[in-house]
Amino acid sequence: MSAVPQIAPAPGASTTRRKKRERPRTTGGWLPYLLIAPAVIFELAIHLIPMAVGVWMSFIQLTKFFIRNWSAAPFVGLKNYRVAVDFNGIVGQRLLQSFLVTCAFSALAVLFAWALGMLAAVVLQKEFKGRAFFRTLFLVPYALPAYAGIITWNFMLQRDTGLVNHILVDQLHLTDTRPFWLIGNNAFVSLVVVAIWRLWPFAFLTIMAGLQSIPQDVYEAAEVDGARPLKAWRMITLPMLRPVNTVLIFVLFLWTFCDFNTPFVLFGSAQPPAGDLISFHIYNASFLTWNFGSGAAMSCLLLIFLMIVTGLYLALTNRRSANA
Amino acid sequence: MRDTTASRILRWVVLTFLTIFTTVPLYVMATSSLKPLGDVQGAFTWLPSHLTYQPFVSMWSTVPLAHYFVNSIIVATVATVVSVFIAILAAYAVSRFHFHGRSTFTTTILSTQMFPGVLFLLPLFLIFVNIDTSLGIKLVGTRIGLIITYLTFSLPFSIWMLVGYFDGIPRDLDDAALVDGASRWKTLWQIVLPAALPGVISVAIYSFMTSWGEVLFASVMTTDENRTLAVGLRQYATQTNVYWNEIMAASLVVSVPVVVGFLLAQRHLVAGMTAGAVK
C-alpha cells in the first residue's frame, strides 16, 4: 500500500500537518493573503460565484425574455425541478434518457480505457528495445487538442466517405448497406470508441507510474515460488495498484460522465438521442431553447448526483484505509 | 521476470493492436490533408490519388483561419502568462507560510477542478451579459472575456503542481537570501523560481494546452470577432462543400505545436498529472 505516497508526493500534505501540530502559530503576517488574493479573486469570479448564481437561477423562470434583465424573472420555486424530474413529461423523459445513456457510456468508456491502459502498462513494464517509442506514441491522442482528434473521427465515421464504412463494407463485406455512425443508435458506439481512444493514454500513464513503485524483487520472489505471469499479475500487481486504480477510475468516471467535447464535436447540432450525454443535453436544453432556469435546474441535479458519488467514493476509500 | 514465449506473444499482440488503434486516426489526418478535394468527396482511399499541398494553401481562404489562429494564440498566451504568474504567487504562499485558511484555500481550489464546465457556463454567460448591459464592459465576444475564463481553468492544477516543486526547494535558500538582505519578492523571483523552472515550464505548457483546446466556453462566448480555432474549425463544415482535406490539414497544423510541446515536457508533466490523479 505504499504506492500512493511514492507516486503522489502530495505537496506538504503530511509534512505540514505534522508541522502544524508542532507550531500552530502563523507566519508571514498579511503577506500570504496578499499572494493568494489574485487566485482567490479569479476563482470566486469565474467558478464559485457563478455556481451560487446557478443555484439561484434554478429557482426562477429565466427564459429568453429575461436574459438581459434577469432581476425581472419571476421566482417559481421548485417548478424547474419538478419539470426536470417529471418523467411522464417530455423534458423529464429526455433528461432521464440522457442520464441513462451517460451512465452506460461512462461505464463502458472507463472500463475499456482502464483495461487498455493496464494492458499497455503491463507489457511495457519490462525494459526492451523500442519501449520509449511506444510510450511516446501512445501519448499522442491525449496530447492532441480534443477537437482535432474528434473531428478526425467524425471524418472517419462519415457514412459515404469515411474509413470505418470503407473497411467494414468495401473491404470486409460485413454488411451490404452502409450503416450510419453519427445518427441513430450507432451514435452510442461511435461515442464510446472515440472516448476510449482519447482517454486510455491517461489510464496508461497513471498505471505506468503506479507500477514503478512495485519493487522488482517481489516479482522475482513470486517467480521462485513458481508463479506464472498471469498469477503474478493477479496476486501482486493488482493488489499493489489498488490505491492507484481506485483514484484513477474515479477520475475517469468524472471526466467521462461530464464529457462535452466528444458529443459536441462528433454530432454538432444533430444531437442523436443515443449519443446525448448529460453535459451536451444541458447545453442544448439551455442554448437551443434559451430556457436558462430549466438548464440551471438540470445542472444542479447533476451537481447533486456528482456530490453523492464523490461522497460515496470518499466514504469507501476512507473506510478501506482505516481498515488497512 | 523472465521473458516467456507466451508473454512475448502477448506483448506483440497488445502493442500491435494499440499501435493500430492509436495511429489510424493520425494516419487519416495526415494523408487526407495531402489529398485533392475529389479524393475526400468519394469513397475513402488509403492513399491519395496524387499528393498535393493545395489543402494547406486553400484552408486559409475557405474560412478566416488566420484570424482564428491569431485569436487562439493571443488568448492562450495571455491566459497562460497571467495564470502562471498568479499560480506562482499562490503556490509560494502555500509552500512557505502558515496562515489561517491555508488548507481551506487549497481544498477549495482543487475541488473547483472537479466540477464540469456546464455547471457554471450558464451563470457565467449571464453574468457576462449583464456586466455588458449594466457597466458597458464587453466580455462575451471579446478576447478578454475568454482570457479571464481560461486562466482559471489551469489555475488549480498549476498551483498544486508548483506547491510540490517549491516544497522540494530547501527553505535554507530563502533564509540565506533573506539574511543577505534580499526582499521576499526578490527571493521568490531570483532564488526560488529559477530552481523550480522545470515545474514552471510544465505548468505553462499545460496551461497553454488547456486554453488551446477548450471547446465548451468558446462555443458560447465567441462571435466572429474573437472565434478561436476550437470552434473555428467547425466553420469548414458549414460551407456548401465539406472540405475534409482542408479540415484535416487545419487540424494537423493546430495540433503540431501543442503535441510537440507536450512531448517535450512529457517527463515533468506526466509526473505532475499522474500525481494529480492520485491525490
Automatic annotation (TrEMBL), chain A:
Pfam families: BPD_transp_1 (PF00528). The keyword Cell membrane applies. PROSITE patterns: ABC_TM1. It is found in: Cell membrane. It is a multi-pass membrane protein. Residues 1-25 are annotated as: Disordered. The chain crosses the membrane at residues 30-59, 99-124, 136-156, 180-200, 240-257, 296-316. It comes from the Bacteria. Residues 99-313 form the ABC transmembrane type-1 domain. Its main location: membrane. The keyword Repeat does not apply. Keywords: Cell membrane, Membrane, Transmembrane, Transmembrane helix, Transport. InterPro entries: ABC_transporter_permease, MetI-like, MetI-like_sf. Belongs to the binding-protein-dependent transport system permease family. This is ABC transporter permease. It comes from Arsenicicoccus piscis.
UniProtKB/TrEMBL annotation, chain B:
Keywords: Cell membrane, Membrane, Transmembrane, Transmembrane helix, Transport. It is a multi-pass membrane protein. The chain crosses the membrane at residues 12-30, 68-94, 114-131, 143-166, 187-209, 247-265. PROSITE patterns: ABC_TM1. Residues 69-265 form the ABC transmembrane type-1 domain. Its main location: membrane. InterPro entries: BP-dep_ABC_trans_perm, MetI-like, MetI-like_sf. It is found in: Cell membrane. PANTHER family: INNER MEMBRANE ABC TRANSPORTER PERMEASE PROTEIN YCJP, MALTOSE TRANSPORT SYSTEM PERMEASE-RELATED. Belongs to the binding-protein-dependent transport system permease family. This is ABC transporter permease.
